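=== Structure Prediction Worksheet ===
Name of assembly: unnamed complex
Input type: mixed (protein and possibly other molecules)
Chain count: two
Listed entries:
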Amino acid sequence: MISKKMEPLVKNSSVIRAMFEEGTKMKALYGEENVFDFSLGNPNVPAPKEVKDAILDIIETEDPVKVHGYMNNAGFIETRQAIADHLNRLHGTDFDARNLIMTVGAGSALNVTLKTILDPGDEVLTFAPYFVEYGNYVANYDGKLVVVPPNLENFMPDIEKMKEMITPETKVVIINNPHNPTGVVYPEEVIEKLSKALEDKEKELGTVIYLLVDEPYRELVYGGRTVPYVTKYYKNTIVAYSYSKSLSLPGERIGYIVIPDESDESEDFIEAATIANRVSGAVNAPSLIQLVIQRCVDAEADVEFYRQNGEILYNGLTEAGFECLRPEGAFYLWVKSPEPDDKAFVNKGKKYNILMVPGTSFACPGYVRLAYCVSKETCENSIPKFKELAKEYNL
Amino acid sequence: MISKKMEPLVKNSSVIRAMFEEGTKMKALYGEENVFDFSLGNPNVPAPKEVKDAILDIIETEDPVKVHGYMNNAGFIETRQAIADHLNRLHGTDFDARNLIMTVGAGSALNVTLKTILDPGDEVLTFAPYFVEYGNYVANYDGKLVVVPPNLENFMPDIEKMKEMITPETKVVIINNPHNPTGVVYPEEVIEKLSKALEDKEKELGTVIYLLVDEPYRELVYGGRTVPYVTKYYKNTIVAYSYSKSLSLPGERIGYIVIPDESDESEDFIEAATIANRVSGAVNAPSLIQLVIQRCVDAEADVEFYRQNGEILYNGLTEAGFECLRPEGAFYLWVKSPEPDDKAFVNKGKKYNILMVPGTSFACPGYVRLAYCVSKETCENSIPKFKELAKEYNL
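=== Predicted Assembly ===
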């Protein structure tokens, strides 16, 4: 009775579940502290104190009918204005509450955006390696995900290849910055080159190509890096944001979409996306947490915690002989598998109680991803294990 | 650039917005207390005290990494178990945590269910008058909504007509009990007759027909009525529930799906629905509010408040000469339009600052809906206005 579209997902999910259950079993067998689980992107840092203070204050002082009630499907206007003001302060943009739609996390922000614009058969381009859910999200609206092969030199988007692969059916290009799973940050010159390429293609084909920027890791950058705010470079940019990582609220499902005034048909887009938010069944982003965000727009993520973890792993693994990308942002270490078969490498890691995700899961075989949103101890204590693992490969 | 599927929704939405803006304008012009706005189903009762206490307790005592973190996409197991136990206590059912999937409200519960089982072209039956979003939800998965005409005698589902309209393509029948927009409650004999008819049809056609029961108003019933728990009558029942009305939490987007063990392919269904919850972009129901629900499963709705409002309006309008259904549940009064054109009647109401929704919006012309989840004063003060309106029709 299961829908034909869901069937392959059910099959694939049993593989993920088996992996997850293996981890649970290992932890039960060896003790949680002796398993080095780098497989999940679930922040291990508590939400900043401002979140707790905001919840208590709202619950004690605000009218519960408002706090827990319906609002405009796009979200509380005060929350959207507070975020717009915050973005304008930081990036010199010129957003207003109307340019923002509050969503049930970035997952919903991406879905609402795709639902708003995709017709069956429309093509959505993204760059390998990429977050595997993009494929499911695009399939939800019968679009076709087209994957630009990975640029193994530096894992920046392969813009020349993208230009070759754009067709009149290309409606959206998705980028993720800072990047999951590689931990790279696309700098200004890459965004400029990408924008120029898309503008040229729009002119050449006479089409509109939206650049959908998925940036849940925006604040998690190291070494004084900044993440370009893409609406300033390319007018048909749509931003999908989430507070899951920056404020450690992944379970709360709170994020937003930015649709700038200068984007093509922005008024219709805003209206349609607000309706898509409603008819998707979400209706609106959770109300109490919207009010929390309004009071916490300037709260800061614990970037230093993640930076330290990244450094511990990068230094330890490099010393052990592994080839890694030095993390620039997000909380992922991207490691070259010492054998071509990344799944075999992941399996060998399990002998040392190390859990990693094969690059194959991100359409980039030959690499593995370590998510270091775990405790510092887990990172530190894993290094001797990685050294043993390295010996198996004579590194 | 807007998706072809979204275009008609955008057009239709401007009509709704115009209506909403007219109400706002009227309130600005005449003062809020002089406008009798019965158009929206947004509860005016604050959440019970247990909700506030639960939030404060969780925030003060629980680990924030858990409170705001990811859990299984189906929801916290403790929350699901607490709800299962609650249902078992009340209804003598035999549910376990595994039978429940926490969702972003009933809107998401209905969408996740339909996404799980609908293939393009599958038929979904429902009974007029019906909640207009059903059509949008079914269209999200390229299903076909088939509407059984209204039973104007007593607004119970027309089961004989349903039997005629079921085809081999019918995968789902949706009912809503207590009922929006009529305020009727389907009693046990109706549920028994409906179940028997569906069983017969399943046998006759050799198909599985899921009965999707949308029951956000379950607790809002008057006069000692009870709402049959449908899984006990028909094995292929799926329940979609929401705390929006019972605990006045509509903005929080919290609800669940029940998939009983005895339903066909229940294991696959549960697995697929959990994945559908994830890939829809919702990922999971909001985490803090899940933990609140766990502590508030026995909290009670303020039924008496709604009952009184319903009685004030029913008595007042009947006295004025209107024909109304006496409310049995939910918070809607269903009134026969004194002229065949219900939209014209709604327009005449506006002259007296009365806002109602035409039955046409529920596929049942000739009637109007009054949502009485408003203040008692609004109900009381509206009666003289309804009497003036009645005079226009010489009632």
